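User: Teach me something about this protein's shape.
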Amino acid sequence: MMNFKSILTTTVLAATMAMAGPAMTQERSYKPGSVWTASRIKVMPGQFDNYMDFLGGQWKRVQEFGKKEGVVLSYHVLSVNNARKDEPDLILLIETKDYMTTAQQDAFNDKMNAYLASDDRKQAAASAARGPMREQQGSVEYQELILK
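Assistant: First, the predicted structure itself:
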């Protein structure tokens, strides 16, 4: 025989499930889209053309390889007009199809290093060598939400 507490619990549970049913079947008004990484770059005085040469060379080659591999959808270099104190001079935008798993990141990194005839240590050293040209001020990831 059920006691009052059991009956009350069963009734509340049934009512909750009845109300949740319509909410669970509702379709969202959006769907997840591509992922954007925005890197903030402060270019050191007198280094703008040198850094742009790097972006137009090695950085662009890497992005084009990513497009060829189906990882990168698009990439952009944006100039920050009228930058205020402590704001970046450039924003580097990279649009990818989706987030990658660790295994996918490692596989792509291995392909990229083979393409560049390089390895992780050489890439880290090259990044450090660009230190006099720029200061990396961090990056942010965004995911587009496509409205239906």
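Now, about its shape. The longest strand covers residues 30-43. The two ends are 51 Å apart (CA to CA). If you'd like, I can walk through any region in more detail.
User: That's plenty for now, thanks!
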